[in-house]
Specification:
This protein is α+β, with helices and mostly antiparallel strands. The protein is built from five helices and twelve strands. The strands form three sheets. Strands 3-4-7-5-6 form a five-stranded antiparallel sheet, with helices on both faces. It has a four-stranded antiparallel sheet with strand order 10-11-9-12. A hairpin with a 3-residue loop joins strand 10 (about 190-195) and strand 11 (about 200-205). Helix 2 runs parallel beside helix 3. The longest helix is centred in the middle third of the chain and has 18 residues, at about 135-155. It is elongated, with a radius of gyration of 23 Å. The two termini are about 30 Å apart.
Length: about 230
């Protein structure tokens, strides 16, 4: 376990601290399934199987649009490649692409590797240079699986933490105070709107949310209007 958790906004994850106490006879699900992780940085692999070269990469990726941009960049780096297959595990935006390989022999096995490692917000890509020898369906599944698995061996993993989004309205006189509190908490300030009141939205780790809201309410003395009850 590392000291600095990564925050992934696309999917919410329950933390141990947020779970209700176990009832008699109930099994703790966290003993069966580890907390999801993402990657802190890209990692690579490079293997040759029957004269075909497989160049694997795993990297943090939040959504499908970003993943497609990364794949497009790979085509510019490897214009002579026969295939660039990829798999994205990112909540509702997950994808598995065979890119001309026989159906189910590349993208899906790559996605399965990410799932088995309890990863989220990760893109796996494999660039293949064809060596003239066909591998067959089973050989392709093993090759693409191994390319991703080998890259993950050196990939730095960090735990995901659930984020809370807070939004409120305050008088102009309190905008500075709220901005200072947001900055002091290390929160991520998002949308700010100025009308008859100032509307601010920000994100911070969920375990910090309740104490933050209480602190703001105490300082605001009834002048804080929460748009979504925290």
């Amino acid at each position: 376990m590392v000291d600095n958790p990564q925050f992934y906004g696309g999917t919410h994850f329950l933390s141990l601290a947020g779970r209700l106490p176990l009832q008699a006879g109930e099994t703790n699900p966290y003993t069966r399934r580890p907390m999801p992780h993402t990657l802190a940085a890209p990692a690579h692999s490079d293997t040759v199987i029957k004269k075909s070269r497989f160049i694997g990469c795993v990297q943090p990726m939040a959504d499908r649009a970003s993943a497609q941009a990364a794949v497009d960049a790979l085509w510019k780096q490897h214009p002579g490649a026969a295939h660039i297959c990829w798999a994205l595990l990112a909540g509702g935006q997950s994808a598995a692409v065979d890119d001309g390989e026989p159906g189910g022999t590349a993208g899906r096995p790559m996605l399965d590797v990410l799932r088995h490692q309890d990863l989220e917000g990760v893109l796996a890509t494999v660039v293949r240079y064809f060596g003239g020898v066909k591998l067959g369906a089973g050989g392709l599944v093993r090759a693409y699986t191994d390319a991703v698995a080998q890259a993950l061996l050196t990939a730095p993993k960090v735990p995901l933490q659930r984020m809370a989004t807070l939004r409120c309205q305050v008088p102009y006189a309190l905008e500075g105070l709220l901005r200072r509190e947001i900055d002091a908490a290390g929160a991520e300030l998002g949308e700010v709107q100025h009308g008859s009141l100032v509307t601010l939205q920000w994100r911070l780790p969920e375990p910090q949310a309740a104490a933050f809201v209480q602190r703001i309410n105490d300082q605001g003395q009834g002048r804080i209007g929460w748009e979504t009850p925290p």
